[in-house]
């Protein structure tokens, strides 16, 4: 039986050579959030462990400052409310 080959996912933050993930930069954080504003895991985003931890802290800070919602109603799921 032959194994499936998946394309290699690369860390977006390492490629962009970003030094700091700012919690106020919502456009940068939205790539790691699902349509229901859950934090997506590393295996789906391709982030390295270091950057995934930094992004999680930034998302949690943004939620605390009410820049990103904690949860949304499952009946009112929108495409993207960042626009």
Task: Give a nutshell description of this structure.
This protein has 83 residues and is mainly alpha-helical.
Overview of the molecule:
The structure is a single chain. With 83 residues, the protein is mostly helical. 34% of the residues lie in helices and 0% in strands. It is built from 4 helices and no strands. The longest helix is centred in the C-terminal third of the chain and has 16 residues, at 49-64. The radius of gyration is 14 Å and the shape is flat. The mean pLDDT is 85.
Secondary-structure topology with pairs:
Elements: H1 12-15, H2 26-29, H3 42-45, H4 49-64
Question: Key terms for this structure?
Answer:
mainly alpha, single chain, 83 residues, flat
Structure summary, number of beta strands = 0
Q: Average pLDDT value?
A: 85
Please work out how many helical segments DSSP would assign.
Answer: 4
Low-confidence stretches: none
Tell me about the biggest sheet?
none
Rg, Cα atoms, Å: 14 Å
Write the element-wise H/E pattern from the N-terminal end onward. HHHH
Q: What percentage of amino acids are in beta strands?
A: under 5%
Q: How many angstroms does the end-to-end distance come to?
A: 46 Å
Please state the structural category: mainly alpha
Helix content: 25-40%
């Amino acid at each position: 039986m032959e194994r499936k080959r998946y394309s290699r996912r690369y860390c977006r933050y390492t490629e962009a050579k970003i030094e700091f993930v700012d919690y106020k930069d919502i456009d940068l954080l939205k790539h790691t959030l699902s349509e229901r504003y859950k934090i997506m895991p590393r295996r789906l985003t391709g982030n390295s462990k270091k950057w995934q931890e930094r992004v999680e802290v930034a998302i949690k800070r943004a939620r605390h400052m009410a820049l990103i919602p904690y949860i949304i109603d499952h009946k009112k799921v929108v495409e993207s409310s960042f626009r």
